[in-house]
Amino acid sequence: MATSIELSTLGHRIRHRRSEKGLTLDELGALVGVAGSHLSLIENGKREPKLSLLQQIADATDSQLSDLLSSEPPNRRAALEIELERAQGGHLFRQLGIPPVKVSKGLPDETIETILGLHRELQRRERATIATPEEARRANTDLRLRMRDQDNYLGDIERLAEKQLKAAGHHGGALTHRTVSIMAEQLGFELIYVSDLPHSARSVTDLENGRIYLPPASIPGGHGLRSMALQAMAHRLLGHKPPTDYADFLQQRLEINYYAACALMPETQSVAFLQQAKKDRNLAVEDFRDAFGVTHEAAGMRMTNLLTRHFEIPLHFLRVDGAGAVSRVYENDDLPLPMDVTGAVEGQVVCRWFSARSAFAEQ
């Protein structure tokens, strides 16, 4: 039994040959011994003809049977109509819950092309949604390896942050909320604290009116107000455009987080502090954290930016949940991380003897 698309193509080819010969449905029907209405059903792909009838139609239109049975649409208009029929019969279109467009002679080619263009875009987005998990893993892996190759260090952003801090009058110690506000004002922004931000947003930036909306208190998990404000400013400073894909999104997120870390723990001051601590043989995340008034995780991650580049010390940063699944990682010290077939480590379970995991068992 032929498929609906095959029948539709066959119908278009019969109609094309009939039109070329200048025959009406009734005239062709009289030549082959069937009613015009019967031929109409065949031409519209609603009925499958017998092979003997097809041979008669071929003879009546001076065609070869193989020509009528070809899978190629006879002309561009037929190709558009067949593609539209295929699109409207698919699962994606049915999910939309809208009635199909009825094709008639009066429907312009341009209209069909527009509908097909919309459908192709829906298909592209559907494929992108399906590919997202693997795409995310690959993009995360590529970014992690690329940052490892450059010591997790971004010199241009380091210098930009110090320039902005100097312009705001910050010369040392923990960065104050007042200084962060000054940095925002110098970029034409006003920081506004509101309690009705969308749950999915850490901050909202109104570029037209120069406002950055922030929650009234820090978000659990180390997302301090200073850091969130600095990240929002970083998009403007770094000239970010809407991300083109997930990899671009990850790169932008890394850059704004990096800028915030540079502003909270400036390179010059941080390196001086770490140099003295190394000299005293007392390098500790806790001391670095307290010196700049940041979270333990922020301090640890910032040390990965600086210790290899300035002190040639290889290290790793590893965050896991209670079951040992990796949620965040950086390493350049050959830490044997578990990986999936794509090389991704996120979500993989580390050895139960890793200190990052065994710490959960300590009382």
TrEMBL record:
Xref: PANTHER family: HTH-TYPE TRANSCRIPTIONAL REGULATOR, METHYLPHOSPHONATE SYNTHASE
Organism: Microbacterium ginsengisoli
UniProtKB keywords: DNA-binding
Any single Gene Ontology cellular-component annotation: cytosol
Protein name: XRE family transcriptional regulator
Pfam families attached to this UniProt entry: HTH_31
SMART domains per the UniProt record, alphabetical: HTH_XRE
Domain of life of the native organism: Bacteria
MF GO annotations: DNA binding; DNA-binding transcription factor activity
Domain HTH cro/C1-type: 14-68
PROSITE patterns: HTH_CROC1
Stretches assigned to coiled coil: none
Family annotation (InterPro entries): Cro/C1-type_HTH, Lambda_DNA-bd_dom_sf, TransReg_Diox_bact_type
CDD domains assigned to the protein according to its UniProt record, in alphabetical order: HTH_XRE (cd00093)
